[in-house]
Write a structure and sequence with these properties.
9-stranded mixed β-sheet, globular, 234 residues, L-amino peptidase D-ALA esterase/amidase, 13 strands
């Protein structure tokens, strides 16, 4: 599923999973939930674990990004949109035309994976870093991945889902023989990837998300599909 609103007068709106509205404009990808969701991830704004009503993937020009903390930029954008409730926010310098959505419902459990992608800073885990100080903030994210599910994932399952997403993303890059310009070895991602998992606390409890269970199989397949199509577009 490809969703794009470049040049559109109004945002494109779809429902990737029950109770979630996905709106896409040239400037942002926004998911609004009918009730708060449990969210775990590496987002710039409200990263870690929280309970949120909104997910934001904001496009910024990497060269002309505001000279301020990225969370300030995200908070201001959310205020301007009039969104109430907690917002979990990511940034990207990639075109939102790269957005790809893969979704599936199995045994009354819905999963949707949203990916935006750019490949300007491919890296392999362990490559020498450009920034040698721990306090340096990285540039806006390049491969941003969000998992939405109608299941209620335990904290351990949410962490396992992030692991599964990372593995599938790397597999999609390896399948296309994409390499780090630093080491010339197969890339495992870009230097600024961000991930999150959004789970519905009202849904059926899911305790496991690994490769031996159906949820993990479907998740891996969706990430491979969405990342692969986003990479091909990038």
């Amino acid at each position: 599923m490809n969703v794009s609103a470049t040049g559109a007068a109004r945002p494109v709106v779809v429902e990737p999973v029950p109770g979630a509205r996905l709106a896409v404009t040239a400037q942002h990808v926004h998911v609004a939930f009918d009730t708060p969701r449990d969210v775990l991830g590496s987002a710039v704004l409200n990263g870690g674990w929280c309970r949120a009503r909104h997910l934001l993937n904001l496009r910024v020009n990497g060269r002309d990004a505001p000279d301020e903390p990225p969370e300030t930029t995200l908070q201001r954008h959310a205020r301007r949109q009039g969104w109430s409730g907690t917002v979990v926010g990511m940034m990207t310098a990639a075109s939102l035309d790269s957005l790809r959505v893969a979704r599936e419902t199995v045994h009354d459990v819905s999963l949707a994976v949203l990916v935006t992608c750019g490949l300007s800073n491919l890296r392999r885990s362990g490559d020498r870093a450009e920034h040698r100080l721990h306090a340096c903030a990285p540039p806006p994210g390049t491969i941003n991945i969000q998992l939405l599910t109608s299941a209620s994932l335990t904290p351990a399952a949410m962490a396992e889902a992030l692991m599964m997403i990372t593995e599938a993303k790397t597999a999609a890059l390896h399948a296309r023989d994409l390499r780090s310009p630093v080491s010339d070895l197969p890339a495992t991602g870009t230097g600024t990837d961000a991930l999150l998992v959004a789970s519905d606390p009202r849904g059926p409890v899911q305790r496991y998300c690994g490769k031996h269970v159906l949820f993990g199989e479907v998740l891996g397949r969706l990430v491979l599909d969405a990342v692969g199509r986003a990479v091909d577009r990038a």
